[in-house]
Amino acid sequence: MKNIFKEYFINNSNKIIVQFARYFIVGGLAFLFDFIILYLLTSVYGFHYIFSATVAFIVGIGVNYILSFYWVFSGTNKKFSNRRLIEVLIFFSIGIIGVILNDIIMYIAVEFFEINYLIAKIYSTAFIFFFNFFSRKFILYNR
Known about the structure:
- It is built from five helices and no strands.
- It is mainly α and about 140 residues long.
- Helix content is about 80%, strand content about 0%.
């Protein structure tokens, strides 16, 4: 049991199952930030749900990047270089595509299917989770 805990939570790993399990946890934390900010901006401060979803998603991307870099795909080189800058740009470019997909899915769910914006966010998150993991795994951290 100790070895499984170390493998999944402590040691660096390039095993896709370990990275996926870690990314699931990271995604959950990023989703919490995203969901809470979406709710606050829309329901408490009165912003339109698409604006709120975009801002909240960008905050979630930041949380996701930091945790993915240091824990999920932790076998990467931590030194700052031109390669690191390119990596950050690609990571956030994938995130921008995710924001666009998120907003489209939410808009369709809310405007055409009349689903509450918070429920639409849950549907959107399920799709975007897999898009982000596999895009980042195979484009950025293909090890």
